[in-house]
Amino acid sequence: MGFRGFPPEALVFLRDLEANNDREWFKANKARHAEHVVAPMQALAGDLAHLGPPHLFRPYNDTRFHNRPPIKEQQGMVLGHGLGAAWYVELSLDGLFVAAGMWRPAPDQVERFRQAVDDGRRAGALRRALSAAGKAGLALGEPDLKRVPRGWPPDHPCGELLRHKSVVVSERHELGEWLHTPACGERIRTQFDAAAPLVRWLREQVGPSQRPAR
Fold first, then answer.
1. Which of 157, 180, 184, 200 is the most buried (most CB within 10 A)?
2. 8-205: CATH architecture
3. Which DSSP category does 142 fall into?
4. pLDDT at residue number 137
5. Which residues, listed in sequence order, are joined to residue 78 by a DSSP beta bridge?
6. pLDDT of residue 37
């Protein structure tokens, strides 16, 4: 069966997890997590298979160097990772987060992005892609830099774009009854379709990092 929305039990599980966040509790309730959270996300991945292979993030936090709960209180999934830009969806008690773009790029990707933005024709295509995403409710995140990067004129016509490293459009949807119906999948697909020109632009003009793997 295709994706029919996240069941109400998914939110019940996340609320219980928030109140009982430890590994032993999660181990005892792992079947609930698999049935009510992971399985619907996998069904959604099946419906969106044309966007690329999915990656569901593991539930365990790395607590060795950070003071954080041992279990993640959200379930995220990325689609089409490794091509320079991707789609992302995440369920948590804060809402359903829908996003697309290039997140935390490597230095060589940032350099290619800036060179593309410096080209008026390519910059125009990027602005049109961002506008299409914006009309569907997906907003571009805040710039990473306070000023235009060194080596570029402060009055560059695309200065606000040059201040970006990550280029991600997103919207966080408030939880509601729609989440438990096929309307959830329709909302995600509509926004992913609207973000497709941006993802395509980033893949064509920036692409994945060419730096050797560590």
1. 184
2. 2-Layer Sandwich (3.30)
3. P
4. 98
5. 55, 88
6. 98
Structure-token pair, residue 26: 């999660």
User: What count of other Cβ atoms lies within 10 Å of the Cβ of residue 6?
Assistant: 25
CB atoms within 10 A of CB 183: 13
- The predicted-structure confidence for 43-100, as pLDDT tens digits, reads as follows 999 999 999 999 999 999 887 777 789 999 999 999 999 899 999 999 999 999 999 9
Reading the block at residue 72, the tokens are: 């993640």
String of DSSP letters for 70-126: SB-SEEEEEESTTSS-EEEEEEETTEEEEEEEE-S--HHHHHHHHHHHTSHHHHHHH
| 144 vs 200: CA distance, rounded Å | 22
Long-range contacts made by residues 68-73, C-beta under 8 angstroms, separation at least 24?
Answer: 69/21, 70/21, 70/22, 70/23, 70/26, 71/17, 71/21, 71/22, 71/23, 71/26, 73/14, 73/17, 73/18, 73/21
Is the distance from CB of 205 to CB of 116 less than 8 angstroms?
yes
pLDDT at 179: 98
Tokens 């989440």 -> residue: 179
Task: Return the axis-axis angle of helices 107-117 and 120-135, rounded to nearest 10°.
Answer: 100
Q: Which residues of the chain have pLDDT under 70?
A: 1, 213-214
